[in-house]
Amino acid sequence: MPERDDPDTQTLPAEAGIVRNFLEASMKPDPDLAATFMAEDVVITFTGGREFDHPSGPTGFNAGRYKWVKKKMDRFDVAEGKDGVVVYSVGTLYGEWPDGTPFEGNRYVDRFEVRNGKITKMDVWNDSAERILTRMGIDA
């Protein structure tokens, strides 16, 4: 499948549209709506190697890490994979730390596997841990 730089849902391959809809539901946050885009046996591997089987896991984790957080989705890269279509969402996070200090430009990459119209696997990486260390005065 071709790579797309336009994150507009109408121009995305179907699998990237599923991922975008999932991410939008996750940012509300509405983990139950987000779960409708995922297979029942989904595996979500979050930052630090934390594993979850429902979007409520990352939502709960993020509630302790941020006052609020959203994604600026810059692009979706789509390719055929061994176990379905692989979709990468690449962009930056913005929001507020628990003390209300705003942040932006926090890089993220989310990797999804989509099969039969459902997300079966999700892997999440971002720069939040390094930014938290910097806020603590530790040069990571």
From TrEMBL:
Domain of life according to the entry: Bacteria
Matching Pfam families: SnoaL_2
Domain SnoaL-like: 19-121
Annotated protein name in UniProt: SnoaL-like protein
